[in-house]
Design a protein that fits this description.
By secondary structure, this protein is an alpha/beta fold. The protein has two domains: 172 residues, Rossmann fold (3-Layer(aba) Sandwich), CATH 3.40.50.1100; 99 residues, 3-Layer(aba) Sandwich (Rossmann fold). It contains eight helices and ten strands. The strands form two sheets. The chain has a six-stranded mixed sheet with strand order 1-2-10-7-8-9. α2 runs parallel beside α3. The longest helix is centred in the C-terminal third of the chain and has 19 residues. Its cofactor is pyridoxal 5'-phosphate. GO terms for molecular function: cysteine synthase activity.
């Protein structure tokens, strides 16, 4: 009998068929919500903690601190609890209640910064607290830590290559910290330089949790523009509508960034079909829709939702 730890169960997520505008260009979604922490961020969180331990940067008595929009924080909180570390997570005040409560359930301290400042404000706050308390905190710094993308180079990319039987032609991914797209791009391009890497970012003014349109001074240091063949802008309303439609018509329950990436993949598939070409697209379904239930995403009034009948 093989006994597995929590971290042993990170990765090896399935690929499922998703709606495509053309049968000649199937779209497969990698179900990262199946990770024990419920998102793709389990992979880099474990990679960053494990390697910090190996380098002796992280040891008993050190408190981890990290700015996060949600999923990385939840993954870090889960693993920190399992490994016995204290953790402080800094996030915007408009983060969903599910995220905040999940982090606290794992024993993490949550610091909420003004919503108007966005992720930039959380990053600044975390760095200031780190600087003011030398020797007390360690920031893994997902935006600059190569152990972030390395997790996807070592696991996500190889899984996709294997499970598509080397037939993948396009990889479509949301870009937040950019760790997923950087690691997968490295791996897939080594196997086949013709695989096209497509990144997704919000249109100006759109707010999509997990996807960022970074100001130049905050662009993640791990990001290398030459590793992305194309960038597609996604409107917030389109991403949200796609998430609701996907759940109501296919039973696939995802978050907004995952739905936005699917919409982008559908645009790519439509373009290929219009040119008479075939292909195989893989996109990352980075988390589950239950992390958004307290937001307006699935609130009453959207036509995609099922009816509600209350019997007195």
């Amino acid at each position: 009998m093989k006994l597995s730890t929590l971290t042993d169960r990170i990765g090896a997520t399935p690929l499922v068929l998703l709606p495509s505008p053309s049968p000649a260009v199937p779209i497969l979604g990698k179900m990262e919500g199946n990770n024990p922490g419920g998102s793709v961020k389990d992979r880099p969180a474990w990679s960053m903690i494990r390697r910090a331990e190996e380098r002796r940067e992280l040891k008993p008595g050190i408190t981890l601190i990290e700015p996060t929009s949600g999923n990385t924080g939840i993954a870090l909180a889960m693993i920190a609890a399992a490994r016995g570390y204290k953790l402080e997570l800094v996030m915007p005040a408009n983060s969903t209640a599910e995220r905040v409560q999940t982090m606290r359930a794992f024993g993490a301290k949550v610091v909420l910064t003004p919503a108007a400042g966005g992720m930039e404000a959380t990053i600044d706050f975390a760095h200031a607290r780190l600087a003011a308390n030398p020797g007390t905190y360690l920031m893994l710094n997902q935006f600059a830590n190569p152990d972030n993308w390395r997790a996807h180079y070592e696991t996500t990319g190889p899984e996709i290559w294997h499970d598509t039987e080397h037939q993948i032609t396009h990889f479509v991914s949301a870009m937040g910290t950019t760790g997923t797209i950087m690691g997968v791009s490295r791996y897939l391009k080594e196997q086949n330089p013709e695989v096209q890497i497509v990144g997704c970012q919000p249109t100006p003014g759109s707010r999509i949790p997990g996807i960022r349109r970074w100001a130049p001074e905050y662009l993640p240091k791990i990001f290398e523009r030459e590793r992305v063949d194309r960038v597609i802008d996604i409107e917030q309303g389109v991403a949200e509508s796609t998430a609701r439609t996907l759940a109501a018509t296919t039973g696939t329950f995802t978050g907004v960034s995952a739905a936005g990436a699917l919409w982008a993949a559908q645009q790519v598939a439509g373009e290929l079909a219009s040119e008479g070409k075939s292909g195989l697209i893989v996109t990352i379904l980075c988390d589950r829709g239950d992390r958004y239930l307290s937001s307006d995403l699935f609130a009453d009034g959207h036509p995609e939702l099922g009816e509600l009948e209350i019997v007195a």
